[in-house]
Amino acid sequence: MKKSILWTLVGLSLMVFGVSVNADDQKEHYYIPPAGFVPDEQTAIKIAHAILTPIYGRDVLEKEEPFVAHLSNNVWTVTGSIPKDRLGGVALIEISKIDARILRVTHGK
To answer: Where along the chain do its domains lie?
Structure first.
């Protein structure tokens, strides 16, 4: 019985030690680029296509080319363009410049 308690305590000690080493490793290897994960318009548009294509389809998005991106308050707003001969809305996505979070996705009618 005493051996089983001893091994349980050893196991728990190793688990606690392992978690603390792992947490230190994560802090040590964490990196955020100085310009954020989405540093420029081209990157924002590429991310927008990657997110919007499975939602709205390649055919819809091709009709809204070219996509443009504007930066305001560290948020990229990427929108499609409406062709001159067409009425309706376009895809819009907001992406955090700092950490690349998708903040909003919508499509006008």
So the answer is: 1-30, 41-107
